[in-house]
Design goal:
The complex is a heterodimer of chains A (666) and B (250).
Chain A lengths: L2 H14 L1 H26 L9 H43 L4 H41 L12 H28 L2 H5 L13 H23 L7 H32 L1 H4 L2 H43 L1 H8 L4 E5 L5 H15 L2 E18 L4 E3 L10 E7 H8 L9 E6 L10 E4 L2 E10 L14 E6 L2 H13 L7 E9 L2 H15 L5 E6 H55 L3 H29 L1 H10 L5 H34 L7
Parallel strand pairs in A: 3-6, 4-8, 5-7
Antiparallel strand pairs in A: 1-9, 1-10, 2-3, 2-4, 2-9, 5-8, 6-7
Helix pairs in contact in A: 1-4, 2-3, 2-4, 2-5, 2-16, 3-5, 3-16, 4-5, 7-8, 8-10, 10-16, 10-17, 10-19, 11-16, 12-15, 16-19, 17-19
Chain B lengths: L2 E13 L6 E13 L3 E6 L5 H8 L7 E6 L2 E2 L5 H11 E4 L11 H11 L4 H15 L14 H13 L5 E5 L7 H16 L3 E5 L3 H4 L4 E6 L2 E7 L5 H16 L1
Parallel strand pairs in B: 3-8, 3-9, 6-7, 7-8
Antiparallel strand pairs in B: 1-2, 1-4, 4-5, 9-10
Helix pairs in contact in B: 3-4, 3-5, 4-5, 5-6
Classes of the chains: A alpha+beta (666), B alpha/beta (250).
Bound molecules: adenosine-5'-diphosphate (ADP) and magnesium ion.
Chain lengths: 666, 250
């Protein structure tokens, strides 16, 4: 027969099964649209003018790759659900005498139509929206919008290509399974749902392993402290969590439900009776989907609430970066006047007044501190994975910069500990052999501190005078430590954020011409680069979360229809035996409710237990206000819970609509 | 003896949704059944037997006419009242058993009692007692897909009887059973009828019908003939029914 014939059949098939294909189409459209917009944003010339462009481009590219990967995983999984239902239909073709190659033709045309439909619509919408999405992103970045209106076919080809490859992989998989199975066997593939009777020993073992895996994942996440440095550990933790959740749902939850069933007082009560009996089997059959949803949910909460916290916390991050407006660090002491002059003239140029300029001589290097003995050395006996930092300066410098008036006698130091590593009752410190008496202990952070994930803790040793400082340095130099003194010039200018930004740009221009400058940084710069970066994160996080949520809805919706169709017979019987529609609805409400909210409750547990991970990630971005992060997470959870409840109600309506459809034969 | 069931001039017209075709399935059915009666309804396929039974069981509504069960007119009852009535007063045995797969045999039998909010103790007593009488005690903890057709139907009978209903309705209960299992089921019906249970049963089988006290013949939505057993033996009664059916064919 001609290919056009199969093409027609394929088209008819799609129209007839539109209930399933439509959901698939919507999600696919959104996915390819997001992908196209990602590539568009990453390659748009307007982005090149933003500070930190290469970093942003890289993040967006990683976003593209990630999106392609998750699309593949989701598409493969939803295909599995769809093909299961279709096996019967494919079997019917076989009964009509179709050969595998004909069935493959049908599958091919179906996939082709779907691909063309979602790719054209998705990219079309993407092209229409790209300008607005771009605008929103630049507004979020607090940048002038520099939209380069060019539209490159490259991005369209890349998007088309990536999704064609994904679809082809899935199509091949389906074709192979059609040709491998004796096609007629497909007809009989309707496996009767066997109820779960009682627990076998293997179930108990699985339940124990499942719970143990989840606990392991929790401990693991909380123990690893440089999480961000290795993606592998993260993937490993998610895999543990997924496997654990799957086993826990399919065995542990079923175990609980069976135990409840044993409670005569509870079980033999009107709606509990059917609800519990059905739940046991439904939980077991849906364990995989529930575990998938559980992980998706966890990812959405962690991903979205951290990108939201990150973005909303940008101001906070920028303002904790420095206590003053900015800092210039240099090695050559003689250049300090030039720097001061640059600050003053930039202020004059932009019409701002200088509130103060402070100079500090600092001596800092990485080390390992033993807070029990007060010893600084190179021996990592503390078990911390990252080095500590020691910073030394004179008490005069310290007082000037901090506005305090400490005094120290010879041989005494002021010890300032990291706020996260208190050192109560420390009497003396030993800096590579140089011993001092600790006169006073204070807690950081001080003016030189910037949060940074690259070290564990930062300690300050304030000595009595310059001679002592020089002596220590000489001694350490003889031990092979070549670190030099640094001079930092910090300043405050009075002005609005915009004025400070202009001042900052001016100052940067002038500093370019001064030699021996180590680094230049300011709150204005920090604010700008962070807004840019956090907006990109928010942008990626939002799109990817939306895709996750859409797939979640898709899986749920699909499962609802499938289960409802299987349940129609049961409900008919229940009605015949005299159950009211209201009672049946109550049962459905309870059953679906438990199945729906099980993964969510588990996801909330995961998030709560893995909060340490989020904390680490946030610290990388210098967002250390834990209460703020917590607030963001909780608010996001409440928000998504509301969305999910609406979704649940919709699914419940779909389900009860299918099973209680007025049928005159009852 | 008291009348257990009265049907007065029952009509039923089906309207198909898509076309405007009307179909009059019942054209004025009237009959009575006494307390402790055992009525068999026979008739060709499509003659309206199931429709009649469904209307008695209030699974369907009549277009006109009255259904009076133990003195109450169910055609005048509200929806909730009907459900209540059905739970407390009626037991139904279906041709295709209609057991729920996710329940054990025991829970399937207990289901109507649970709906009536009976205590666990009462449920246990009733279920065990009935299972003993019907001979399915050993099956109580099995699931429907693990037992044979005959056993399934006996389970369904137990479920129909578990509430001590005033009226048991059975729609071709032996339709899916082989002759041995059919005989056993009819014996069961007879035993319960002897204990005073009122039973109304639709059947195609002469042998099953011969166990009843009265046989109604339905034809094109009206009752044609009624035969009474009047204390004759099963064999004699069967012969009379067979004769009637034979003459009707001619
Ligand atoms: N829901 C319905 N809609 C339309 N016609 C129906 C419906 N149910 C039954 N009928 C028709 O009513 C007639 C009687 O059906 P039924 O009572 O099921 O017969 P039977 O005696 O075989 O049990 C049949 O002709 C049937 O086609
Ligand atoms: Mg019938």
């Amino acid at each position: 027969m001609k290919q056009t014939f199969w093409a027609k059949i394929a088209f008819k098939n799609i129209i007839e099964n539109k209930k399933f294909h439509l959901a698939n189409l919507i999600v696919s459209i959104f996915t390819i649209m997001s992908f196209y917009i990602f590539t568009f944003t990453a390659t748009n010339k307007g982005l090149a003018d933003v500070r930190g462009y290469t970093g942003l481009k890289f993040i967006l590219m990683v976003g593209c790759v990630f999106l392609a990967l998750i699309s593949f995983v989701f598409k493969a999984y939803t295909n599995r659900l769809l093909i299961k239902r279709r096996n019967k239909e494919l079997g019917l073709y076989a009964a009509w005498g179709l050969e595998p190659k004909h069935v493959n033709s049908i599958l091919f045309f179906e996939a082709l139509y779907m691909y063309l439909a979602y790719a054209v619509i998705g990219i079309g919408i993407g092209v229409l929206l790209q300008k607005y999405v771009y605008r929103v992103m630049f507004t979020l970045m607090h940048c002038d919008i520099r939209y380069a209106g060019d539209f490159s076919f490259n991005n369209i080809f890349i998007s088309l290509g990536v999704f064609a490859v994904i679809d082809l992989c899935i199509l091949f998989k389906n074709m192979i399974s059609v040709s491998k199975k004796k096609i007629i066997a497909l007809l009989k593939d309707e496996t009767a749902v066997e109820p779960v009777k009682k627990l076998r020993a293997s179930d108990i073992l699985k339940a124990v392993i499942g719970v143990a895996l989840i606990i392991c994942a929790y401990i693991y996440v909380n123990r690893v402290d440089d999480f961000v440095n290795s993606l592998r550990t993260l993937v490993f933790a998610v895999a543990l969590l997924f496997l654990g959740s799957f086993l826990a749902i399919s065995s542990f939850v079923v175990m609980i439900e069976l135990a409840l069933k044993k409670q005569d007082k509870l079980y033999y009560r009107n709606t509990f009776f059917t609800t519990l009996a059905k739940l046991v089997t439904r939980t077991r059959n849906n364990a995989l989907s529930l575990a998938v949803i559980n992980i998706l949910f966890t990812c959405v909460i962690v991903g979205s609430s951290s990108t939201i916290a990150l973005y909303l916390g940008t101001e906070r991050q920028a303002s904790v970066a420095f206590k003053t407006d900015g800092e210039i660090s240099l090695i050559d002491e003689n250049r300090i006047p030039e720097v001061e002059e640059a600050i003053r003239s930039s202020a004059a140029d932009t019409g701002l007044s200088v509130e103060g300029i402070w100079i500090a001589k600092r001596y800092a290097f990485p080390t390992a501190f033993n807070e029990k003995t007060g010893e600084f050395s190179n021996e990592y006996i503390t078990g911390r994975n990252l080095p500590d930092i020691i910073e030394m300066m004179t008490v005069e410098t310290f007082n000037k910069n901090e506005g305090t008036n400490y005094t120290l006698k010879e041989g005494e130091v002021l010890f300032i500990s990291d706020e996260e590593c208190p050192v109560n009752g420390l009497e003396g410190v030993n800096i590579y052999g140089n011993r001092f008496k600790v006169a006073q202990i204070a807690e950081g952070p001080i003016f030189t501190d910037i949060d940074n994930i690259q070290y564990a803790y930062k300690f300050h040793v304030i000595v009595d005078n310059d001679e002592t400082l020089a002596r220590v340095r000489e001694d350490l130099l003889s031990q092979g430590n070549t670190r030099e003194f640094r001079f930092s010039v910090t300043y405050n200018v009075a002005g609005s954020k915009d004025e400070e930004l202009r001042f900052d740009e001016r100052l940067n221009d002038k500093l370019m011409h001064i030699e021996s400058i180590d680094y230049v940084d300011s709150n204005a710069t920090q604010r700008q680069t962070r807004y840019a970066r956090n907006s990109v994160f928010l942008f990626l996080g939002t799109f990817i979360s939306l895709i996750f949520i859409m797939y979640m809805i898709f899986i749920m919706y699909y499962k609802q229809i499938e289960e409802a169709l299987d349940d129609v017979g049961n409900v008919k019987i229940m009605k015949k035996i005299g159950m009211y529609s209201a009672e049946i609805k109550k049962c459905i409400f309870a059953e679906n409710g438990i199945l729906f909210f099980l993964p969510v409750v588990m996801a909330f547990c995961h998030v709560a237990a893995c909060f340490a991970l989020m904390k680490d990630v946030m610290k990388l971005f210098m967002l250390t206000d834990m209460d703020f992060i917590r607030l963001c997470v909780v608010l996001f959870c409440v928000g998504i819970l509301v969305v999910y409840m609406l979704m649940y109600y919709g699914a419940y309506k779909v389900y009860s609509g299918i099973v209680l459809k007025e049928d005159s034969s009852v | 003896m008291n009348k257990m069931l009265e049907l007065k001039n029952l009509h039923k017209t089906y309207y198909t949704k898509h076309s405007n075709v009307e179909y009059e399935a019942l054209k004025g059915i009237s009959f009575d059944a006494l307390e402790g009666d055992f009525v068999a309804i026979m008739g060709e396929s499509g003659s309206g037997k199931t429709t009649t039974l469904n209307i008695i069981a209030s699974l369907d509504t009549s277009t006109s006419g009255e259904v009076i069960i133990a003195g109450s007119d169910i055609s005048k009852m509200g929806n909730k009242e009907i459900c209540r009535f059905r739970r407390e007063k009626l037991g139904f045995v279906f041709q295709d058993f209609n057991l729920l797969n996710y329940f054990t045999v025991k829970d399937n039998i207990a289901f109507p009692l649970v709906l009536l909010n009976r205590s666990k103790q009462e449920i246990d007593e009733r279920v065990n007692d009935l299972a003993e009488k019907i001979g399915i005690t050993k099956l109580l903890n099995k699931y429907p897909y693990e037992i044979s057709g005959g056993e399934k139907q006996r389970t369904a009978v137990a479920r129909a009887l578990v509430c001590k209903p005033t009226l048991v309705l059975a729609d071709e209960p032996t339709g899916a059973l082989d002759s041995k299992n059919s005989d056993q089921l009819m014996e069961l019906f007879k035993t319960f009828n002897d204990l005073g249970q009122t039973i109304i049963m639709v059947t195609h089988s002469l042998k099953s019908a011969s166990k009843a006290k009265k046989v109604l013949f339905l034809k094109d939505g009206v009752i044609g003939t009624t035969l009474e057993k009047n204390g004759r033996s099963d064999e004699e009664f069967e012969e009379e029914i067979a004769g009637l059916l034979y003459n009707a064919r001619k």
